[in-house]
Amino acid sequence: MEKSIKTATDYAACSDTLKKYLGLTGSPVALMLAGKKEMIPETVPLVEGKFRHCAMVNMARKEGKIFYATVENHECMGGAWALGLREITDTLRSGQFYFKLGKFESWASCKRTIDHIHHVPANETFATVYAPLELSPFTPHVVMIIAPPRAMLKLAQSTLFRLGGRIYPEFAGIQSVCSDVSAQTYLTGTPNFSLGCDGSRRYSGIADDEMVMGIPVEILQEICDAIPIVTGAPGSV
């Protein structure tokens, strides 16, 4: 397996910190976008069946499963496109798909939204690889967290702890887990927060009082180091 990051991170310790200080009900999820099969550890099995990306995230988060999925295992075409496993479908590109679902006034308004969705270049990804962060046998590209708004507040404060500034989350109410916190975080190298979408809330176990966040692995340790400080600060609630 190829090493994809120079700095070593204790993923189990990071997961313990996130769970302890944020009160997570499941595990943070490690995600790797493997460009070729050789990047996947031999101990990680291919998932059996077809699932949506958001559902596979939940399998790692809630069931502790470790596995990889190729394009044949991805049930949602929009998710597979966003993650770089395949070309975009004609109905998604034109706006027809979401228009028929009743979520936009017109095909044009849908197309304007689709044109701004972050997506990994088509066919750049061989497989998506999933694991609970504390058990991950691979170096992830992105770590995803599903948690209530208060936990997201502490994650936002931890993100700004060292340098300060502002956070500019970007989302559209569609393709939340596949694009907003997976592809976008991977491509931009910046954390992103999203409200979830109808599909992810239906298939990935996101509760009504939960949001989603993606963290680029390069700054995971920095955020985890800040969490105990910001949650323990005198003004923290």
Features of this protein?
single chain; 237 residues; 6-stranded antiparallel β-sheet; 10 helices; 13% strand
* Low-pLDDT segments, ≥5 res: none
- Tally of distinct domains: 1
Q: Please give the count of helices.
A: 10
Instruction: Record the strand order, biggest sheet.
Output: 2-3-1-4-6-5
Instruction: Quote the beta fraction.
Output: 5-15%
β-strand number: 6
Radius of gyration of CA atoms, rounded to a whole number:
17 Å
Binned, the helix content reads 25-40%
**Major sheet characteristics:** 6 strands, antiparallel
Along the chain, the helix and strand elements come as HEHEHHHHEEHHEHEH
Look at the helices and sheets and give the structural class: alpha+beta
Average pLDDT taken over every residue: 94
Would you summarize the structure shown here?
With 237 residues, the protein is α+β, with helices and mostly antiparallel strands. The chain contains ten helices and six strands.
Secondary structure elements and pairings:
Elements: H1 11-22, E1 29-34, H2 53-63, E2 67-69, H3 77-82, H4 90-94, H5 96-100, H6 107-114, E3 127-132, E4 142-147, H7 149-160, H8 176-188, E5 192-194, H9 198-203, E6 211-216, H10 220-232
Antiparallel strand pairs: 1-3, 1-4, 2-3, 4-6, 5-6
